[in-house]
From TrEMBL:
Keywords (A to Z) from UniProt: Dioxygenase, Oxidoreductase
A GO molecular-function annotation: dioxygenase activity
Start and end residues of each VOC domain: 7-131, 152-269
Domain of life: Bacteria
Name used for this protein in its record: Ring-cleaving dioxygenase
Cited InterPro entries: Extradiol_RC_dioxygenase, Glyas_Fos-R_dOase_dom, VOC_core
Keyword presence, Magnesium: no
KW Cell membrane (keyword) present: no
Length: 313
């Protein structure tokens, strides 16, 4: 049987000021800050992880905040829109909540589903959709109850400079199934109950430019280290230039650039975010990779102080 990824593991993006990032994703969207650490390649920059109450694969969005970073441009070679799933019957509550924060909303339909589309403070394109899939997220914050809370990723829209090759990769090498298509998109589904619906935009547009307000990469799920090595060999045999396995503390990863210019990662479900913090304390302390522990005092001094705080009026 061909290799099959269960779906999205996480999505990572570049944003602006870290407190603005926390205020929006925790304070407005009600996601849990599950890990506060630093960029492996640039320890002077935070790497912040937001997700459900446990930081489950398929719910995690991660950020590299550059307070004075150059503005990027969303376009081909990127995840153009990140989709979140909310419980059935909660979309109108979300409309009211977003409007209470003066967030501009666009309502649209795709493949028979209604979406609320909006941008985060730094320009990332987001959308909410109601679906039955997966149990409710039990994390509650500032008036967002499990009956309303974001469950995790619905999926996303891929903007590709070569949509046909991107679509072929998803189906032929990654094991997703085409379930619908129209003049604008092809829709694919993976095995998981979250992070499982991918729409490939079939019209190519201007090339994206990496910077604040853009997605850096999308990560797909590998079960464990053995599965990850199988993916590495599978992708290599399929003609992709795949990196060596990288230890990211909370998962292990490989990376490759697909033919439409999007940076893909394969990431293991294990060990997860509870290896260095108790579940009740996730995201409460700055956690550093071992190679940067000797810089803790310096980094604590130089990194912007951030806090999760209520935003409701």
């Amino acid at each position: 049987m061909a290799k099959q990824t269960r779906g999205i593991h996480h999505i990572s993006a570049i944003v602006g000021h870290p407190q603005e990032n926390v205020d929006f994703y925790a304070g407005v969207l009600g996601l849990r800050l599950v890990k506060k650490t630093v960029n492996f390649d640039d320890p002077g920059t935070y790497h912040l992880y937001f997700g459900d109450e446990e930081g489950s694969p398929g719910t995690i969005i991660t950020f590299f905040p550059w307070a004075n970073g150059r503005k990027g441009r969303i376009g081909d070679g990127q995840v153009g829109v990140t989709t979140y799933v909310v419980p059935i019957g909660s979309l109108e509550d979300w409309r009211k909540r977003l409007e209470s924060f003066q967030i501009s909303i666009r309502e649209t339909e795709r493949f028979g589903e209604t979406y609320l589309q909006f941008d985060d403070p730094h320009g990332l394109h987001l959308e909410l959709v109601e679906r039955e899939a997966r149990e409710n997220n039990l994390w509650e914050f500032d008036g967002i109850t499990p009956g309303m809370a974001i469950k995790g990723f619905g999926g996303g829209i891929l903007y590709s400079s070569n949509p046909t090759k991107t679509a072929n990769l998803l189906e032929d090498q990654m094991g997703l199934t085409e379930i619908d298509a129209d003049d604008e998109y092809i829709r694919y589904q993976s095995q998981a109950d979250i992070g499982n619906i991918i729409d490939v935009k079939m019209a190519s547009n201007d090339r994206g430019m990496m910077g604040v307000g853009t997605v850096h990469h999308i990560a797909w799920r590998a079960t464990d280290d053995n599965d990850l090595r199988d993916w590495q060999e599978h992708l290599h045999q399929s003609g992709f230039g795949v990196t060596e396995v990288k230890d990211r503390n909370y998962f292990n990863s490989i990376y490759f650039k697909e033919h439409g210019g999007i940076l893909f990662e394969m990431a293991t479900d294990s060990p997860g975010f509870a290896i260095d913090e108790n579940r009740d304390e996730l995201g409460s302390e700055l956690k550093l990779p071992p190679q940067y522990e000797n810089l803790r005092d310096q980094l604590t001094e130089s990194l912007y102080p951030i806090e999760v705080r209520k935003r409701s009026k």
